[in-house]
Amino acid sequence: MAGAVDLSALKNRADATARAAAQPPANGDSPAAPASAAVIDVTEATFQAEVVERSLQVPVIVDLWATWCGPCKQLSPVLERLAQESNGAWVLAKVDVDANPRIAQLFQVQSVPTVIAIAGGQPVDAFSGAQPEPQIRQWIDSLLNALRDQLPGIRAAEEGVEPIAEEPEDPRFTAAEDALESGDYAAAEAAYQKILDSEPNNEQAKAALAQVRFTARAEQADPAAIERADAAPDDVDAQLAAADAEVAVGRVAEGFDRLIRAIKRTSGDDRDRIRRHLIEMFEVFPEGDDRVAAARRALASALF
Question: Which GO terms describe its molecular function (predicted)?
Fold first, then answer.
């Protein structure tokens, strides 16, 4: 389920969205209004804090629904009741897909209701359609059992104790994340680059820098770039833009393969430029991603 763009790419883009995040939806057709911290309404403005960051402690189950969806009105109350019963072992995040289309696009949602479990900042499991309560309970129990040793908040909630406090945040990363939060990609890139200038081996900064650069390009990606690149296979700029567009819409393997084919056709500075672009793209994905592993092998074959 993992999308091409890192989940943290969903940021606040407008004051109106931010205002909407500060209060629950006024639409009376919503399946139910959250009643406590176990059930929260999430918007594009609050997704990073309420879903991505919260999922570092406990699983966040995202309920993607719509006011016109009948099955949503059956499923949502069940999820809300189970979230209330969990005593904080997991959190239900409700997302109105009509009001927050970028979140639905991120997960490539084809229908609602769709339910996606997020843990450690990444999607780990999902299902679509209204399900019987016993089946949902079993799905959640399996999820918690699988993640109990990875997320400190699960066991802490079950045992009724506070989770161990995290290490203080690095102010340099905080500054970069604040810039990213406000949509200032140039400032975020500069902040991460400054960290790498003093710590060239800082893997966290290296991965974050790659994500910022790709997110900025992905937001400007033009689907028409793919057709233009197919018509001009020797145009390096066109191939790079097309690969960005493909990866941005989830066609990850196709984007990687495009650049590997371009590497085979080029030499010198052009080849090195494409290679560096591809390697930086790899940094956007989690370690162990099968698509990256396959592309790395193909890249090695193309180069040597």
Answer: protein-disulfide reductase activity
What is the C-alpha to C-alpha distance for residues 43 and 92, in angstroms, rounded to an integer?
A: 13
The structure's pTM equals 0.46
Per annotation, catalytic residue among 42, 69, 151, 207: 69
For the chain, the residue count is: 304
> Does the annotation count 69 as an active-site position?
yes
pLDDT one-digit tens code per residue, 99-144 = 999 999 888 888 999 999 999 888 999 999 988 898 999 999 999 9
Residue 21 falls in the annotated catalytic set: no
- The CA distances from residue 149 to 125, 146, 166, in Å, are 17, 8, 16
Marked catalytic residue, from 38, 72, 240, 247? 72
CATH classification of 7-17+34-159, choosing from 3.10.180.10, 3.40.30.10, 3.20.20.70, 1.10.357.10? 3.40.30.10
Closest alpha carbon to 18 in 182, 187, 179, 175: 182
Cβ 281 vs Cβ 299: under 8 Å: no
- CB-CB neighbours of 304 under 10 Å: 5
Q: Evaluate the omega torsion of the peptide bond into residue 113 and state whether it is cis, within 30 degrees of 0.
A: yes
pLDDT tens string 66-101: 999 989 999 999 999 999 999 889 999 999 999 999
